[in-house]
Amino acid sequence: MSKHLVTIGDLVVDILVDAKLPLYRDQHQTARSLRFEAGGACTTILAARAMGLNVAALGAVGDDVAGRFLLALLTEAGVDIAALQMPPTSTTTAVVSLSDRQAGGHVFLGRYGQSRAIELSDAAAQRLSDAAAVFIPGYTLLEERLAGLVAGAFAWLAGESRRVYFDVGPFLGGLARERIDKVLRLVDVLLLTDDEIAFVADDLRDLQRRHPQLTIALKLGAGGCRLLSGATDAHVPGFAVEVVDTIGAGDAFAAAFIWADLQGYSLADCGTIANAMGAASVRRAGAGRNVPSRVEVQALLDADQRGIDLSC
Questions:
Q1: 40, 21 in Cβ contact below 8 A?
Q2: What phi and psi, each to the nearest 5 degrees, are found at residue 163?
Q3: pLDDT digits (tens, 9 = 90+) for 3-12
Q4: Hey, which end of the chain has fewer CB within 10 Å, N or C?
């Protein structure tokens, strides 16, 4: 039977533009392509669904075209959206993703959605109660309207036993270390990149000293990942693939890692499966609805002779 994952916040619409970078003031160009896609935690949600997890999304989308687009997309994917909130006159968090697929590189311009404050509703609390695991992106801690939902969810998690996954993200540097430490005390698995270590600790050794319960998945892009848990410190190699677009690869990585962990795979295999999902993701443009299926992840594992079967 599929495990039940709850995600909190970071429900984003991406406006994906393929353009020549860098951009300069008063310089005009025609984009090579432009499309709307689900981003942020929506990519993690869709990748988790592609792997076979049941997912319930908590948070807010706007009472606007972008919000209705996300609701329709998540509903079509079989995501439980009954506890999502759409306050009147609210707006959806949006990110313009400028990506130069010919030369490489990208630029993100974002704005958090605006609305009244969102609290932990009875429907949201029920989803948490039914969950095997909870995923929280770092962006969620920075979206002001979600403060009540986040506080209520963390208060609930403090008294319950649930597997908690937290993805740091690139903007937590604006939060006090004391608040981050309070969050990390409730976390089981921490996902982050080299650039994000400084947001949560002086270094990895300091992070492990202050939060010894953590399993740490350090994402290394094409280099795979480094896994630290207790006395374990292992590098898991990545996959050699042609890169089309790296947007959303880390979000997809998180989904596959969570799926594998909940299925009981070894830590090393969790890293390998997550690496395969990330590698399969970068072979196509954007993320969201373009996340790879479990069949595609299995094909990449087989082609590289990793000896892992995803048919559980």
A1: no
A2: -75, 120
A3: 799 999 999 9
A4: N
Peptide bond between residue 237 and the one before it cis (omega within 30 degrees of 0) = no
Q: What are phi and psi of 176, to 5 degrees?
A: -65, 140
Cα-trace Rg, the chain: 19
Query: Which residues, listed in sequence order, are joined to residue 36 by a DSSP beta bridge?
Result: 15
- Cα–Cα separations (whole angstroms), residue 158 to 123, 163, 164, 291: 19, 12, 11, 33
Could you tell me the pTM of the whole model?
Answer: 0.95
Check residue 2 and give its pLDDT.
Answer: 54
CA distances from 309 to 17, 40, 56 (A): 36, 28, 26
Q: Hey, which residues does 34 pair with through a beta bridge?
A: 17
- Are 85 and 35 within 8 A, CB to CB? no
Cα 279 to Cα 292: distance, rounded to the nearest angstrom: 10
DSSP annotation of 160 reads: S
What are the distances in angstroms from CA 46 to CA 53, 70, 122, 261, 291? 9, 11, 25, 17, 7
Measured between alpha carbons, how far is 206 from 208 in angstroms, rounded to an integer? 5
pLDDT at res. 85: 97
Residues in Cβ contact with 15 at an 8 Å cutoff, skipping those fewer than 6 apart: 34, 35, 36, 94, 95, 96, 97
Using left for φ > 0, alpha for ψ between -120 and 50, and beta otherwise, residue 10 falls in left
Beta-ladder partners of 235: 226
pLDDT digits (tens, 9 = 90+) for 206-218: 999 999 999 999 9
What's the pLDDT at 1?
38
pLDDT at position 14 is 94
